[in-house]
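Posted in: Protein Modeling Q&A

I'm a second-year student putting together a small comparison for a lab meeting, and my supervisor asked me to include a predicted structure for CPBP family intramembrane glutamic endopeptidase. I've never done this before, so apologies if this is the wrong subforum. The sequence is pasted below exactly as I got it from our records. If anyone can share the structure token output, I'd also love a short note on what stands out.
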Amino acid sequence: MWTARPVWAILLTVVATLVAAYSSAVALVVPTSLPLWQRAVAGCVTSLVAVGLVVLWRRRLVHRPWSGVALSWSWRALGHGLLGLGIAAAAILTAQATCVAADACEWVPLSGVGIPLGEVVVSTFISAVLVQGFPEELLWRGNLTDLLGRRWGPGVVLLITSVAFGMLHLVSSGPQDGVGEHVLYVVMATALGFACGAARLRTGSTWAAVGVHGGFHLAKGLVPAQPEELAALLAAWTVALTVAGLALLLRRPARLRSHAAAERP
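Accepted answer (user: helix_wrangler)
Welcome! Here is the predicted structure, written out as tokens:
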């Protein structure tokens, strides 16, 4: 089927990512502008749209089982998700602490944002996991990785999905300004894709990739650091995520699983 061919699969994944994101664009609004329950609903819509698109793609177009996306429900899956979250959070907090120590950033207390701490935590989780981590990893490290894995080896798939994921962020809105910061932002997103892909490859579970992606956003959202220059913080995140990805790949390489193999409950 043509939708399983590499170029078309990547392009359709980009389209599906944008459709899922914009299907509940209200979930991306500044936290104070919407009631918490509405943001939770919007986040769930984003995830459900991504699930629906993948189900339709796999059942109607490529005729491949859901197991290929490696998102089974099990205690092992929970462990993989927490592992990814912990690795990403440790990497990002280390990067930010390094920036603070080098006087390139300063910590921003959550108490200073004028929102109850509980609401900040829940809102950040909605954005980190429901809006970004789960739907994007389902599409990129779940479905797309499985489709490309039918044609290429794990290393090639990891490289291609990481670069394509990074390039998608050329259209991302954010605080980056100027050509240099936009380029660094794409490089950082590529490093995030690499770390997520490495977690998927290392564990055989897309939940580990969801954990890495969610952990990245949770760490920088709940323990924020304000940089003097955004480029310094982007560079620190890039290095930290790359090191985390390499650590996942290099640790006990004999136990690495093929990304095309589905996780068993």
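A couple of things worth pointing out for your meeting: The longest helix spans residues 117-149. DSSP finds eight helices and two strands in the chain.
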